[in-house]
Amino acid sequence: MSAASEASAQTSYTLWCRGGGDRQQMVVSTNVDASGRVNTSFQISFDRMSTSATAATPPARGECSWLDRPLNGAENGIIRGSFPNVSTSSTLDGGRLTVIDFSGAGDGVRALQTLFNAYRDGRDFRVEVYNDGSVMQVTRVQ
Fold first, then answer.
1. Full-prediction pTM beyond 0.85?
2. Domain limits at 28?
3. Where does residue 122 fall: left (phi above 0), alpha (psi -120 to 50 degrees), or beta otherwise?
4. Which domain of life, per UniProt (predicted)?
5. Tell me: the pLDDT tens digits for 119-139?
């Protein structure tokens, strides 16, 4: 499941994460580009593991790590993806977000729903990302 195609040109590496914890996920923006295509940017913040993520040492809730080493200080604790052809609608109950519906065409809807559900439910997920100097940009949701 791919995120934005322009990000795919970067060399990406697998980041293993577990949702939950006290970190946050959010829809950063939903906009319409010049061609009329709806795009949604989604962001997840996370804590860095002190070790690499392995079967023996998986991430705890709200943590991420590379498969071969821990993240270093220059690698930000934010994952951001831009998903073309995806729009969102939210349901609030007493000011608390209860549901985000993702709709549209292509793999972006499934990728974004996978990330949202895994993070909300405290489950493991893996994303292929590259460090753009500011955030970890998603190129693929595994």
1. no
2. 5-141
3. left
4. Bacteria
5. 888 999 999 999 999 999 999
